User: Which sequence fits this backbone?
């Protein structure tokens, strides 16, 4: 079992005005039907409201604390603006308590600062990138994540995503500087089934362990191969190596190079 090191986090309570309870979907859609299997409720958590839009432009903020968020893999930073407002943002590697952060059209290349992608030089690592201007950060939001600005071409900017996909973005979208914190998350070993249940992961049963009536892989005397050329889902659909992306998806024109398999 390998856990986290919390020694570098601030010993403060979450900000009450930005926290609250929430009901987890536990794998169900708006009709109450299970659409994602093996999801449970997990442990009770408080939800922290993260400011992904970061619209307080040209207003300096001080990093009051770096905190743990049970709802995401990355650490979060609590900001106190000079005008008295407070908010949570995703904490970048290198952000320190007492440091300053600012969101502007063009600013210094300091971890946590946010600016327009067209003003970020080539080779800079960024995170929390918008897909459309003003929409709020939607990409690169998990622990240790970082994309690299590759090139500027007219009104577009080419960015290498963590999946190795090269994608074009409008130069007016906002992006935050630096790699996201808690990069050691990938080395965590849960060590026991109970820790998986805390996270809301329910047990999974292999198809080969079932009967033929329950799964296409089931049945046979003793342990046997699945007896199929390709694996299938419980409903008989192909389950491995099948492309599910729509061929006419609008965003395909912004993909310069697909991710490597």
Assistant:
């Amino acid at each position: 079992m390998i856990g986290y090191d919390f020694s570098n986090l601030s010993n403060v309570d979450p900000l009450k005005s930005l926290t609250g309870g929430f009901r987890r979907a536990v794998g169900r859609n708006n009709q109450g039907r299970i659409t994602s299997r093996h999801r449970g409720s997990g442990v009770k958590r408080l939800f922290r409201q993260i400011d992904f839009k970061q619209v307080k432009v040209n207003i300096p903020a001080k990093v009051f604390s770096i905190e743990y968020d049970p709802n995401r893999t990355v650490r979060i930073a609590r900001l106190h603006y000079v005008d008295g407002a407070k908010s949570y943002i995703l904490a970048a590697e290198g952000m320190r308590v007492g440091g300053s952060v600012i969101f502007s059209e063009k600013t210094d290349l300091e971890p946590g600062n946010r600016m327009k992608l067209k003003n970020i030089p080539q080779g800079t690592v960024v995170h929390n990138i918008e897909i459309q201007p003003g929409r709020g950060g939607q990409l690169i939001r998990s622990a240790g994540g970082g994309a690299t600005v590759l090139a500027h071409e007219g009104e577009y900017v080419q960015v290498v995503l963590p999946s190795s996909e090269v994608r074009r973005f409008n130069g007016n979208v906002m992006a935050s500087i630096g790699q996201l914190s808690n990069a050691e998350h990938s080395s965590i070993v849960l060590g026991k089934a109970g820790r998986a249940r805390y996270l809301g992961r329910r047990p999974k049963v292999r198809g080969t362990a079932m009967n033929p009536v329950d799964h296409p892989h089931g049945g046979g005397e003793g342990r046997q191969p699945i007896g199929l050329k390709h694996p299938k889902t419980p409903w008989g659909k192909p389950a491995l190596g099948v492309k599910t992306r729509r061929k006419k998806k609008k965003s395909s024109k912004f993909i310069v190079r697909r991710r490597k398999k």
About this structure: The mean pLDDT is 93. The longest strand covers residues 61-67. DSSP finds one helix and 15 strands in the chain.
